[in-house]
Structures are given as C-alpha cells and as structure tokens.
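Hi everyone,

Forwarding the result from last night's run.
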Amino acid sequence: MSGPSGNTERRIARVTARALDLIPERPTETAAGAMATTPLVLVDVVTDDGVTGHAYLRTYASAALRPLALLVGELGEGLRGTSAAPVDLEAALRGQLRLLGTQGLAGLAMAGLDMAAWDMLARAAQVPLATLLGGRPRAIPAYASLRTMRPDAAAEEAAELVADGFRAIKVKVGRTDLDADLATIRAVRGAIGDTVALMIDYNQSLTVPEAIARIRVLDGEGLHWVEEPTDAEDVDGHARIRAVAGTPVQLGENWTGPSDVARCIAAGASDYATFDVMKLGGVTGWLRAAAIAGTARVPVSSHSFGEVSAHLLAATPTAHWFEHLDHVGPILAEPLPVRDGHVTAPSTPGNGLQWDEDRVEHELARSR
C-alpha cells in the first residue's frame, strides 16, 4: 500500500514462533538452582514484500516455553495485514491485550515481536540495527559471566576466559553463607589476578539485613559491583543497601519497563543499570529506558540477548559493559564473536540473527 509520499508501507504477512528447549554444554548455576536447559522461543516476522525479521525469547522455566510460543503465534495471527512499523505494532498489540494487560508472558511476547520488527526494518534499509538506531557498530568491553559458582570450578572457568582475552569476570554467589561467598570470590580472584575486574551476582537471594552484613565484609574484596543482592522488586531495600555499601550496586535485569528504570534511579537504588531487552519491552523499551538512564548519567550494561544487545549498547550514550554468556550460538549460522575482550555488532543488515535451520530442526526433533 502506498502512502501520501509514495513510499510502500510494509505489512505483516505472517508470524512464526517455535519452542526450543536447548541443552547447553554446561548448566548455569545460580543461587536459585542450576539451569540445565535453555528454553527459547524463536520468533520470525515476515512482511508482505518478503522481508523477515528475527528475534528470540528466553523463558528460563521450561514450563513456560510452549505457552509463550503459543501466545506469540496467536498474537501474530491478529497482526496479519497490519503495519510492520514498531510504533504501529505496539499500538496493535496493546489493543489486543487491553483487558488482559501487558505484564508477564504477554509483555515478553510483545518484546519478541518488537525485536523482530526492528530487525526487519534494519534489513529492509540494508543497515545494521545500531546504525538504524542512530549509532554505529563499535567495540564494547565485555565481561564473561561464569556458568559455575563452586570455588574450584569457577576458578578454572575464569582462568580459561581470561586467557581468551576477557578483562572482567562475573561469578554468581549466595549458595549458603558468607564463608561460601568468600571461598568462591577468592578462588576466582586467585585465578584471574588483581588487574581483571570481578563482579558478583546474588540473584536476589538475600534479605536486606543479610545483604548489608555481607557487603560490609565484601567491601574489602575489591569488587567492581554486587548485583541484585535482594528481591529485585524491593527498590527501598536496595536503596538501604546502597546507602551503606562501599561496593557499587548493580540492578536492572528484572526491570519490566522504563517506569521501573525511573523509579529505581529516583530512589537511589543502584549505581549501575543492567538492561534486559526482553523484559524491558524489546528494542522500543530499551530506547525509552536508555533515554532515562542517559539523562541521569547512569552507566548501562546488557543482560543476555547478546546479538541484539551489541547493537543497542552501540546506540546507548552511557554504555558500560556487555555481558557475555552465550545461549543461542549453537543454533546460529554466525554466532556473535568476542575478540580481545570486546564485542562489536556485525556490520551486516539487521541485528545479525540468522538461524542454522539444520541445527534448529535437529533440536526441534529431539525435543518433540
């Protein structure tokens, strides 16, 4: 359909959503338990002129995998024939979900469709997503997030990653008590030396008093940050922790929209921010959140979704660190490379996601 300017308006022809419970080479250990699989929803949005945008979603819990894939597919059916522009896509989805709301799985589904729409736009324009967003593909310093948290195993994994060129390492803690935390932290520090930055992540496992007590001791360990020491929704609790901590506090991977970003910044709950493009509302949500963080001059790092995040950080004024913990590399035609401890978004059109369809079909057949 041609608009007043004569430009062709792309419309959505179809949406596909495939549920894939990928088995990684090594489980990821957290204070909440080990994640033995990576539940993924592969999202493809195809326009009426044949341009396809790609994205993926993670459900963490396998029980939510097929319901989310079904929801994305059903919402996609309702988008047939509508404008593929992200602003129009958002309006159409909010219309479908007005009575239900856009939290939970509905919000994740919207984010996946938004990410795929932005990828489609960049592919159609024949530019990298970072360029479409007003930035350019550039090297972003990356930290490696460890899959293991037991002292000996974490130290071994960290040493391998530093040998590969990483100059920053994050390890998950919070298994039992402070002594266990210190054993892991000191084992990793011994393996990587004093010149490599070391972050820790509690994955919301402590009460506020426990967090304050532990961080007072951990302040002597030279940590780059302590992440999510208590319940992610407890903004006031994190503000209390930050007020007494000598170590910077990092929050954000569970923020569910720009309003969460604004609320935490206003409360003084963290020194640094981590953006999860899926939970924030896709590329559109990230851009809105980045504007808030930029105004407050809060450094922004990424959480998961590395392929898209590399582009988004390249267009984020206060970009800080890229989190490297590969989840989808085995099913991609060209996994995102890390060189000399840095990640650079590819200069090809779009966000760089391209499925290895043979591997995808193999994994789908295995999980049926």
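Residues 12-126 form a domain with the Enolase-like; domain 1 fold (CATH 3.30.390.10).

Cheers,
N.
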